[in-house]
Amino acid sequence: MNYFYFYFFLFLFSWRHGSVLDICSEKIKVSVFCISFCFLYFKEVIFSALSPIFPTNVSDLLLGNATSLEGGGAPQCAENLADNMECFMILTPSQQLAVAILALTLGTFTVLENLVVLCVILHSQTLRSRPSYHFIGSLAVADLIGSIIFVYSFLDFHVLHRKDSHNIFLFKLAGVIASFTASVGSLFLTAIDRYVSIHKPMAYKRIITKTKAVIAFSMMWTISIVISLLPLLGWNCKRLGTVCSDIFPLIDQKYLMFWIGMTSILLLFIIYAYMFILWKSHHHRTRMDLRLAKTLVLILVALIICWGPLLAIMVYDLFGKVNDFIKTIFAFCSMLCLLNSTVNPVIYAMRSKDLRRAFLNICHMCRGATQTLDSSAESDWNIKSVRGTAGRNNSIIIIAV
């Protein structure tokens, strides 16, 4: 309880003397205080959930020879049976409580953040006219839908242990796959938008138009939905009698390999696009704003941290034997998808100067004091070409907005 009073008075002091220039500072302080309080209150449960009892021989654990993580855990399955959902319900009560707290906390923040982003974009006619904000809006929709479906489905399966019919389960899984695939697809379109703005800045307005942006994200959503429905339409190990995945019930390993390959290609291009921007600025000695450099680093770190462990476990599932310990790790690593949806609005939307200005316009609308947004249809990053003093060399100045 002493920790609570300490954090409470620290919170009041930081609120009183905090920066007034950052429009999100008060919300951040509230969030940090709430998360700190929840962590202190549930720290014993979280630590116990994240510290399972390891066997003396670690190689036995990784090779699948361990019997269980804790006494009273889920029963071991000698083989992956499509009909036996209990083989995948392997979390202990303390682990269930931990994932429930994580899922509900991250899910709440994700929903609120993406709702704010969507409301600001829909309210601002200037932002709606820019192709880059069509992609950011698509990302916000995907993360909003994905967080709701994921939290409901994940807790329903791993915590409440609901055993749905095969079609109902595959329908829920299709919603999760569609939303997260669309999220990665929206990141891919955003990377293309910024890649073109750097690679061909003079032709950006001609290449990236509002109509092309609408067509692009509409096709991306259609493809994501079709891919997610394939297991429900028959591409599953129960219907085909093929080898099932050890981490996804009813999912055929060939379908999992197909989804991993497609997602990996998109993520690799996203990483390449932002690495190209960094290389371009360094190679041509361009002036890169410190804020933009931080944004690029955040993008790359978020992609690697949030998707790297998940894809690694999925690849291991294709070529190795997955035991209950790895399934438990995968269940916790699944929270990284939700974490990615939580940080996307911060990285791609809330760091935009125009979006923050539009948000302030909404807040100050009643006072009649609004700020004018730049109505040009530029990318989210303003790219300008400036001729050198000698009239020979052109340099690209990248200004983060």
UniProtKB/TrEMBL annotation:
Q: What is this protein called?
A: G-protein coupled receptors family 1 profile domain-containing protein
- Chain segments annotated as transmembrane: 32-54, 98-121, 133-155, 167-192, 213-235, 255-275, 296-316, 328-350
Question: Which Pfam families does the record associate with it?
Answer: 7tm_1
> What membrane topology is annotated for this entry?
Multi-pass membrane protein
| Keywords of the record | Cell membrane, Cell projection, G-protein coupled receptor, Glycoprotein, Membrane, Receptor, Signal, Transducer, Transmembrane, Transmembrane helix
- Give the domain of life: Eukaryota
PANTHER family according to UniProt: G-PROTEIN COUPLED RECEPTOR
The cellular location(s) given in this protein's UniProt record come to:
Cell membrane; Cell projection, Neuron projection
Extent of the signal sequence:
1-20
Q: Identify the GO cellular component terms for this protein.
A: neuron projection; plasma membrane
Membership in a protein family: Belongs to the G-protein coupled receptor 1 family.
One MF term in the entry's GO annotations: cannabinoid receptor activity
Q: Which residues form the G-protein coupled receptors family 1 profile domain?
A: 113-348
Gene that encodes the chain: LOC116334834
InterPro entries in the cross-refs: Cnbnoid_rcpt (IPR002230), GPCR_Rhodpsn (IPR000276), GPCR_Rhodpsn_7TM (IPR017452)
**Which organism encodes this protein?**
Oreochromis aureus
